[in-house]
C-alpha cells in the first residue's frame, strides 16, 4: 500500500518516530485551531504536490497566489523552516506525511 511512497512507508513503519518528527518540525503549528491548522497543512501539501509552484497551488486551492505565499510564510514563521531551503522542505514533507498517516493528530 505504501510502495509508491518510501517516506510514507518509513513513517508507517515507525509511527512513534514519525510522530516525534511531526511534533519537532511543526511545533506551534500543531497547536493552532483545527481550521487554521488544516488550511496551512493543506496548502503545504498542495504546494508540494505542484512541485513548489505557488501559481499552480493557488489554482488548485482556488485562491490568489499571494494567499499561498502568505500561508507558506506563516508556516515558516511558526516552524522556523523556510520553503526555499532544501533541508527544511525535506523536514516539512516528512512531518506532513506523518500527520497525514495519522501518527499524530491534525
Strand content: under 5%
Helix content: 55-70%
Structural class: mainly alpha
Uncertain segments: none
Task: Give me the Rg, rounded.
Answer: 13 Å
CATH second-level architecture: Orthogonal Bundle
N-to-C order of helices and strands: HHHHHH
Total strands: the figure is: 0
Distinct helical segment count: 6
Spatial separation of the terminal alpha carbons = 22 Å
For this structure, what is the CATH homologous superfamily?
Answer: PucR C-terminal helix-turn-helix domain
In the CATH hierarchy, what is the class?
Mainly Alpha
- Main pleated sheet: none
Shape: globular
- Overall mean pLDDT: 91
Number of domains: 1
CATH topology: Arc Repressor Mutant, subunit A
How would you summarize the topology of this molecule?
Blueprint: H1 6-13, H2 15-26, H3 34-49, H4 54-61, H5 65-79, H6 86-100
Helix pairs in contact: 1-2, 2-6, 3-4, 3-5, 4-5
Describe the model.
The chain has 106 residues and is mostly helical. It has a single domain (6-100), classed as Arc Repressor Mutant, subunit A (Orthogonal Bundle). It contains 6 helices and no strands. It has helices spanning 6-13, 15-26, 34-49, 54-61, 65-79, 86-100.
Amino acid at each position: 500500500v505504501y510502495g509508491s511512497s518510501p517516506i510514507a512507508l518509513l513513517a508507517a513503519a515507525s509511527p512513534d518516530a514519525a510522530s516525534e518528527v511531526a511534533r519537532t518540525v511543526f511545533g506551534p503549528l500543531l497547536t493552532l485551531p483545527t481550521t487554521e491548522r488544516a488550511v496551512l497543512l493543506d496548502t503545504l501539501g498542495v504546494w508540494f504536490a505542484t512541485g513548489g509552484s505557488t501559481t499552480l497551488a493557488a489554482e488548485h486551492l482556488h485562491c490568489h497566489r499571494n494567499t499561498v505565499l502568505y500561508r507558506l510564510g506563516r508556516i515558516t514563521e511558526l516552524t522556523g523552516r523556510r520553503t526555499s531551503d532544501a533541508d527544511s522542505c525535506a523536514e516539512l514533507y516528512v512531518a506532513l506525511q506523518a500527520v497525514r498517516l495519522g501518527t499524530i493528530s491534525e
